[in-house]
Amino acid sequence: MSDLATTVTVIDACGRAAVPVLLLSDPGMGKSSLVRGIATAEGVPCETVLGSIREPADVAGLPLVTDDGVILSPPAFARRLSAEGAGYLFLDELTTCPPAVQAAMLALALDRTVGDLTLPVGVRVVAGANPPDRAADGWEISPPLANRFCHVEFRPSVDEWLDGMTVGWAAPPASRAITADPTRIEAVKAMVTGFIRHKPEHLHAFPRTAEATGKPWPSRRTWAMLAGALANVRDDDAAARQGITFGLVGEGVGVEFLTWCEQADLPDPAAVVEDPALVDWTDRPDRVWAVLSSVVGWAASAGTVEAWRKAWGPLLAAAEAGAPDVSAAAARPLAACRPASARVPAAVRERFAPVLAAAGLSTAGAA
C-alpha cells in the first residue's frame, strides 16, 4: 500500500508511458473520487465506464454496415475523449465485468483502441476494482487483462481522508513524476535488459495458482511497460519506483530487480561514450551488458552518424578488456541501427567482422 501522493505519482508516471493503472481496494475507499479529482486538477475530462452494465459491443465497438463495408462504431464516451484529445478513461468495478466484457477490454486497456477508433495519446486509462469476493457478482480478472495493468493497492490513511473532506477531493496531492529525456529512457531500458540477462528465468513467469493470475506477474509485456514507466520517476523516489515495479512484475521478482539496480549503479551512457575508461570492463558480465546496452540505446535514440560511430568505442574497449562475447552481443543491435550514410570504423570491422556480416554490413566501406 502506498501513500496518496505516491499513488498519484504512479498514476502520472504510468500515464506518461501509456501504461494503464488498476486501483485495488475494498468498496468505498474513493477510487473514482481520486481519478475524477486528478482529472479536475489537470483540467481534462474523465469518462467513467461501468463494465458490469455494458455489453462487449459497447466496449469493442458496435458493428455497422456502411457503403465501405462493416465498421466498428465507437461508443459515445470514446468519441468525447477523442474530441477533447486528452483526459482519463476510468474503467470502474473491473471485477464485476463478466469474461466477455473483460475480453473486449483487452485492446482498450493497453492500446486505447475502441472499435475502429484509437484514442489520442493524451488519454490515460485507469481502472478500479474490489476483490472478487467483495464485489457484486464478482469475477476474477482474466490473466491477459491483469497483465495489462500496473496494480496499485489503494487505501488512503485517516489523515488523507480527513484532508480530502476538508479541502475537497478535487485537490489531490501533487505528482512527483518527471518527464524523461531520451537518454534517461535508454538508461532505464538498459537496467531492465541487464537484469533479464542476469536472470533470464524472470522474463516470463506465468503464475502457478489461479488466484495469482489476476495479480501482477512478469512477462515480456510487463517488463517493457516497467521500462517505460520507471523512466518517469526519479532514481531517489524509492516509494514510486517500488510501487511501479511491484505493480507490474510482482513483489518477489520486483525486490530482486530493484536490488540489482541498486548494486549495478550504471553510469550515464553519454559519459561512457566520451570516455570508455570510466567503466571497469572486467566487471560482472550482466553489468557490462547493461552498460553497453545503454550505449546502444543512446546511439539509436540519437540517430546520427556521429553518435553511431562513437558508440563503437565502449564496445571495442569491452572486447579488448576480456568481454568479447558480451560486446559482440551488444554489437548486433548497434549494427542493425546504422544510419544510412554511416561508414563502419576500420577497427570495428576487424573486431566484429562476423557480427557485421550477419547484419549485412560486411561490404560497407571502412573509415
TrEMBL record:
Native source species: Nostocoides australiense Ben110
A Pfam family this chain is assigned to: AAA_5
SUPFAM superfamilies found in the cross-reference section: P-loop containing nucleoside triphosphate hydrolases
Database matches in CDD domains: AAA
Sample GO molecular function, one term: ATP binding
Protein name: ATPase associated with various cellular activities AAA_5
Domain ATPase dynein-related AAA: 20-149
Entry-linked InterPro entries: ATPase_dyneun-rel_AAA, P-loop_NTPase
